[in-house]
Amino acid sequence: MGACVTYLDPSGSQIGKKESIPDTARVLGRMFDGIEYRGFEQTKVEELAKYAGVPVWNGLTNESHPTQMIADMMTIKEHFGKLSGIKFVYMGDARYNMGNSLMVTCAKLGMDFVACTNKKYFPEAALVEECEKIAKETGATITLTEDVAAGCKDADVIYTDVWVSMGEPDEVWEERIKELSPYQVNAKAFSYAKPGAKFMHCLPAFHDLKTTIGQEIYEKFGIDCMEVTDDIFEGERSIVFDEAENRMHSIKAIMYATLGNA
Ligand code: NVA
Questions:
Q1: Following DSSP, what letter does each residue of 123-160 receive, concatenated?
Q2: How many domains does the chain have?
Q3: Does the CB atom of residue 93 touch ligand 1 within 6 A?
Q4: Which domain holds residue 49?
Q5: Which of 201, 207, 237, 247 does the annotation list as catalytic?
Q6: What is the pTM of this model?
Q7: 38: annotated active-site residue
Q8: Which residue has its alpha carbon closest to ligand 1 atom 2?
Q9: Is residue 31 a part of any domain in this protein?
């Protein structure tokens, strides 16, 4: 299948500024076979999908990151040979796109999902309730805990994400560092997990000082890593680059299936 890709950056169209989303959706829908939208509000991608008349793929919003889920689950299956029954622990900001989507996905696939974080960062109650209903049918479990030892006990996978996401202002770094540092993924957290437990991260990750923000944070707060320590990120438990590679395979499969080829 040959493919032609056009990238529209935030300044490359009038979407939402001079042209409404329904209008842009119908224009793009006449020109393209599918649209991948990566932005902020979930309502926007849903509106685009409603009007485009072609498949619209959610490439990330503040609320969810569904395409990443296929890559992540593919990676877990490659390493563990199964999904059902896997104890999956998410540490960090569990009320944003990655935490939300991982909880939904684990619930649907019969996995044991744990959000292990400061309670301020627990996923929204309504979403937890929805996932609990799904879990009853699939055999999954949903646990929210502030206790690292209990949360990580016998974990198969420990997952984290950046503490400040794309749609958020730089001013929140300080409070995130203060509130989420106890939930950093490090050797201590893994000491509670199963011997073969793996580390996952959707990237980008702050595990060293080789980024501008990593350097700025070091100068301001004196820490050389944030959500994950460098030894874990670079260590043998880490499967983050298998996960990164699988984003390519999985998005191709998603596009192939939804373009009416499967
Ligand atoms: N929570 C992160 C995910 C990046 C793939 C963000 O929104 O920036």
A1: PPHHHHHHHHHHHHHHT-EEEEES-HHHHHTT-SEEEE
A2: 2
A3: no
A4: 10-61
A5: 247
A6: 0.96
A7: yes
A8: 165
A9: yes
